[in-house]
Amino acid sequence: MQLASIHFKERAHEKLNDAQLQFNLQKFKGRFVAARRAAIVELDDFEGTREAARAIRQRGLDHLDTYLTLFEENATARGATVLYARTPDEVNALVLEIAKRHAVRKIIKSKSMVSEESALDHAIEAAGMQVVETDLGEYILQINDYEPPSHIIGPALHKSKEEVSALFEKTHGTPRKDVIEDLCLEARHVLREHYLTADMGISGGNFFVAETGSVVLVTNEGNATLTTTLPKVHVAISGIEKVVPTLEDVATLMRLLPRSATGQSISNYVDVLTGVKGPGEHHGVEHMYFIVVDSGRSEVLASDVREALQCIRCGACMNHCPVYQNIGGHSYGWVYPGPIGSVLTPMYVGLENAPDLPQASTLCNQCGVVCPVKIPLPDLLRKLREKEFERGMRPWSETTGLRLWTWMARRPKLYGWLCRLGVRMLRGLAARDGMIHRLPFGGGWTRGRDMPAPAGRTFRELYAARTARDATSEGSRNERTA
Amino acid sequence: MRVGLFVTCLVDLMRPSIGFAALRLLEEGGAEVYVPATQTCCGQPPYNSGDRADTQVLARKVVAEFEDCDYLVAPSGSCSGMIRAHYADVFRDDSAWAARAAALSAKTYELTDFLVSVLRVPAVPGRFAGKVTYHDSCSGLREMNVKSQPRALLAKAGVEVVEMAECETCCGFGGTFSVKYGEIATRLADNKCAHIANSGAEAVVLGDLGCMMNIEGRLRRRGDSRTRVLHVAEVLAGELP
Prior knowledge:
The structure holds 2 protein chains of 2 kinds. By secondary structure, chain A is of the alpha/beta class. Chain A contains 22 helices and 12 strands. In chain A, the strands form 3 sheets. Chain A has a 6-stranded parallel β-sheet, with helices on both faces. Chain A is elongated. The N and C termini of chain A lie far apart (86 Å). Chain B has 13 helices and 8 strands. In chain B, the strands form 2 sheets. In chain B, strands 2-1-3-4 form a 4-stranded parallel β-sheet, with helices on both faces. In chain B, strands 6-5-7-8 form a 4-stranded parallel β-sheet, with helices on both faces. By secondary structure, chain B is an alpha/beta fold. The two termini of chain B are 29 Å apart. Chains A and B meet through helix 1, helix 15, helix 17, helix 18 and helix 19 of A and helix 1, helix 2, helix 3, helix 4 and helix 8 of B.
């Protein structure tokens, strides 16, 4: 996917002023939040389950080498081939190689965010093959000239029903439909043909299970099941961090994933795919490949933001993020938006290519408290801010301002005098309503808001005066008594 | 019981009445209040900007100024949250100061939490006849577990609290975020203003001056000169500005 995180501010400005998008975002905003709230109370011990899920994910990461080896052994024993990709380019190269080996002409895909990292669809088309996205959201984006996804579980959440209607009418050449069910049926009709004629299916992978060598797919539309079972070749692509030790662990994580994501007790489909079709078996593919992707993940593992790799891609952090809710996913400029994206994107594409992302958060910690695997997202954002500061990536005005503030604040006497002077000057800028309407050097604030003017005296000077007054009256009382 | 009052730099600069209200509430609650004259900043601005060296300088100063008190209390969830929840990280590579900071963190409280949980005040001096809505500031709510305490105290002051929609959602302040990403901050504040208006309250009450300035600044710019923006300490102490 084309990286555009460097344009965060301009994009956010554009999105804040896009009336149609704002309408769509407002409509979607509360829905996932309310659904999750209702779903988590079904669990007797939600917090305990979160803690267990965190521990499972951490155990997987602590012994990643062991579990990946175990996964490879068990998958291979069931007739699958496990391949490793160090970079996004290697992902594409491996897919093309597999396609060539099996003389593939048409590929169907169920949702895979990892494949967005390497713009796999473009690589497939450039190699002369056809690729069809089958997740409804991804399909909508594909036929809209590969519009980028704006959400990790609902890639087309930013689009209204009307926009999709118009797109279908134009692409399919069918009469316009305005009922959602009819639109779904139309997509289903179009896609059905592709399922039956594709030579290869590509899926993502919510979990790789070490003890069984399986891939677990969590979906709602049924497209992943068709994608991974109808063609003779199945390729599952996911990150190295998605390996979990046991199926039992998957069961624990599944108590939280759909509930945190869409507010469902369980998703409509959960596929556990293990190995190829054995002798005498009726189900399963003839050839099964796993592409296990690093693409910057081992660097995250070795860094002080490694907890980001615990992520199970539920999207709760973005659903609950007040910034995401208002600017939408496209502002973040890459595959993963919202709080988790603001940690992962700089790590995967370079902090210098996404310097705004760690900064563009109020650190309100709504993301941290809803994360089902307890990733301390604000702490991780702050750690990235430390790196920006250390590398001298922040504007001169900001670093100088901070240094000056600290320099003053550690000198209480001087600080006191400067504050007295400062509040009097600010007071002088106040209009009759007690508000400062325009602040020199403070346009970032006063462009959209007034600044309530200070009272004009600092607490410290008023308190000192009061203490002195009390002491005097105490003194004169004592004199009288004497 | 010797309580150190950490006034916070914003209250010192912008709205001293909050500091005096906190002082009165603590004294009437039976505490002997100590106000270190040299106090300035808890270190949150450099901390959230990734400037660890400067954060440590300011955090050491706070620890040294307050460690002799039985408690540190601040009329702010944000500053008390900085001290209680983040000083351990600030001194993650300095074990001597980490130990001193941990001792202070353990006795650091947000004002309303302290009045309810430690002083267990039976009554408050302020009376306020009117309908208000309460904004739960992020750090107070999610770092200091401040939720029921201010509401319980407001009830003692005879205040009717009507809850607005999304009272736990960030107002968009976020410290330097409010200037660096002013446009986004303004939109978040806009949402907050709309919820306040829809609640029908005549005032919004909250426990953090940063959020107050953001919300009041947006309310006034939107042309709402009527809705009052009050610190919970001001209402409880009966010392409205």
